[in-house]
Design brief:
- The chain is mostly beta strands.
- The protein has three domains: 34 residues, no CATH class; 178 residues, no CATH class; 31 residues, no CATH class.
- It contains four helices and 22 strands.
- A hairpin with a 2-residue loop joins strand 12 and strand 13.
Length: 254
């Protein structure tokens, strides 16, 4: 049974009797008054999400099925905003988070818990469909995402995809400005760069903090609106350096 956070706690501590729970299940209040809503408070400013042993760094869409985004982040005014679309295996939209605002869907047999920086939706005990922990850095996300028969399993040990291909897994990687795309018409699954930049970076390092640092550094250079100044001026060429991110480029004189 889907309960709002307040009534979930009431039921957990035994303050809501079984007969009362059955009455609420028979006459769900969110059918009468609308969906259960809330807001995640994300203090983190850097555009990074931890998915199991992997990290996604950048803004925009990260997981897509036939062009529909299931996971994306934005960072307007140095404020991280997360968006997630959670479907079940029958393509019913169970919950949606849009720029940190979350709405749980129709009153199906799901269990919801939330706090200011934490949200969990379960089908049943130990069967977690979505869990977001914004108290960590990077933000930690665990999910079982479905769309059109395609399944992304975001688990603590790895990210696994099953659908048009079977048992495709990623571990201990940092994906910078890269996205995972499943195309059911072409029967393809691929890692592609963010179309805004036309390229991305894969960072591999055994140390998590170092991997994230390298990933954020690569993102800063990739997304930087460069302000180049001449640092070397020779007869045949010039060398420019960006005052924002330190990128160096060389131009030959005609």
């Amino acid at each position: 049974m889907l309960l709002c956070p307040i009534h979930h706690h009431e039921a957990t501590v035994g303050a809501m009797l079984e007969d009362e729970q059955r009455l609420y299940k028979k006459n769900p209040i969110n059918i009468k008054k609308g969906f259960v809503e809330g807001r995640l408070k994300i203090i983190q400013k850097t555009p990074a999400v931890n998915i199991g042993s992997n990290q996604f760094i950048g803004t925009g869409d990260f997981l897509l099925v036939d062009g529909e985004s299931l996971l994306s982040i934005e960072a307007p005014e140095n404020r991280l905003e997360l968006s997630v679309r959670l479907y079940d295996q029958k393509d019913n939209l169970v919950a949606e988070i849009e720029n940190n605002e979350w709405i749980s869907g129709e009153p199906l047999p799901w269990d919801l818990e939330s706090r200011f920086q934490w949200l969990r939706i379960r089908r049943k005990l130990k069967d977690i469909a979505l869990e977001i922990d914004a108290t960590t850095h990077p933000l930690d996300l665990r999910a079982d995402l479905w769309r059109k028969g395609q399944n992304f399993q975001l688990r603590p040990e790895q990210l696994t995809f099953n659908g048009v291909v079977k048992e495709a897994g990623l571990t201990n990687l940092c994906l910078v400005a890269l996205r995972l795309e499943a195309d059911t018409s072409r029967q393809s699954f691929s890692i592609v760069p963010d179309p805004r930049y036309g390229k991305g970076h894969l960072v591999s390092h055994r140390n998590l903090q170092e991997r994230v640092r390298m990933g954020l550094e690569a993102w800063e250079k990739l997304s930087c609106e460069h302000n180049f100044t001449i640092v070397v001026d020779k007869k045949k060429y010039r060398v420019f350096e960006c005052s924002k991110c330190g990128t160096i480029k060389k131009e030959w004189k005609v």
